[in-house]
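Internal ticket #5521
Category: modeling
Description: The requester needs a full-assembly model to guide mutagenesis choices. All entity lines are attached below as received. Residue total reported by intake: 461.
Assigned to: D.W.
Attached entities:
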Amino acid sequence: MKRNPSLLLKKEIGDDEVAKIIEGAKHDDAEALERLAEYVYPRIFSYIYYRVHHTEDAEDLTSEVIVKMIKALKKQHGHFHAWMYKIASNALIDFYRKRAVRSEISLSEMTRAIPDTSVNFSKQILLRKNLKPALAALTEEQRQVIILKFIQEHENEEIAKIMGKSIGAVKLLQFRALKSLRKYFERKGYETKD
Amino acid sequence: MKPKIEEILDILLREVKRGKSIEDCLKDYPEYVDELEPLLRLATSLQDLPKPEPRQEAVVATLRNVKDAVVEKTQKKIKFSLRKIFRLQPAVIRAVAAVVLVVVLGWTTVTLSAHSLPEDVLYPVKRLTERIQYILTITPEGKAELHIVFAHKRTDEFAQSFEEGEEMNRPLLNAMLNEAQSALKYSESLPEERVKQLVEKIMTCNHHQREILEKIKPLACSSDSPIIDEAINLCAQRHRCIEYTLNPELYREQPSSTCWDQCCDWK
């Protein structure tokens, strides 16, 4: 898998610059639109990646979400990231509706990826592929908190805005999500202690 | 009041993120060690996961899709603007259409009037166009040239009018002779080198007028004959004046009637 240096660099962009890019993109500035696409790509991709089975599906959906965003950018108001993840969530709902694949089915498919052994597999958690079925076992809100907090490393305040919840509710969801994940890994025979 | 467990977890997560060890963090909350330690380790493992990365070609394809979307957006914008002009501003459209209509109608009328005769409806348009053309011409040379052109036109109209009605049109006769006379008067104010060229043109015009008059004379009614004779005589006098102006050396003495003011007026 090749790394895309331009996308990684965009992670270093500050909030002020992001605001400027968004403003420029809203005025159809071609360069700003391209930079915005580069900025949102890794965020949307990792948001979708853990919710679909194939990487190709994640790439296609990411592309679809970004194009939708660009087309609807003028209508955007309020918190940008909340708006962005809302479009991504809707795209995921459409994705599963079109394929008539319910999350339970995808969970059963994805569970097969984990070896059913009772060996101490603390390092196995580090394997991305094992996280997908584990996340699929969570509720949608718990899954969203885990991705936004630990994969995308957003602060609680921002997660609260994105999810439309209070910070206290986000903390509670975070606690419950980690607990559920731990239970899942224990059930599957993985130990989370080193 | 004792903080809730989810609050404590959040505090500890922040401390671990800042670099504190899990063991050190939990020292302040010994009663929660069993419950929170595995959660903190799990959270750390999640944060340490390598970030998922798309393939380069997928990113390139997306950027291409974005560019296409931008182009499509711009085209829609242009289409919308045009639609806006045509739908939302009928006043502008009406004004433009009115101007175009006036220009087209005007141009058509002027073109059709070019070959009209005095009895035609469009003849006043023809004369008005000539008048405007004359007013817009500033230089004496340009005005003299226009008088010659108008003299030719009136002469042709005079001949055509006679052919169609077999009657002499007196106003046209006056007009053709007076236009030539005006051209001669304007030529006096020109520089010497330009006078010769202009006078040659007047001579051609005068010759043309005399020919037309001589053709008409036998066909005209007896009451018109004296006037035609008089006009032919004037043309002959003008011819002598012009010849003397062009070649004074051919004349031993100046002809008695070589001054425009004395002999070239047509009344």
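Resolution: model delivered.
Comment from assignee: Chain B is about 75% helix and 0% strand.
Ticket closed.
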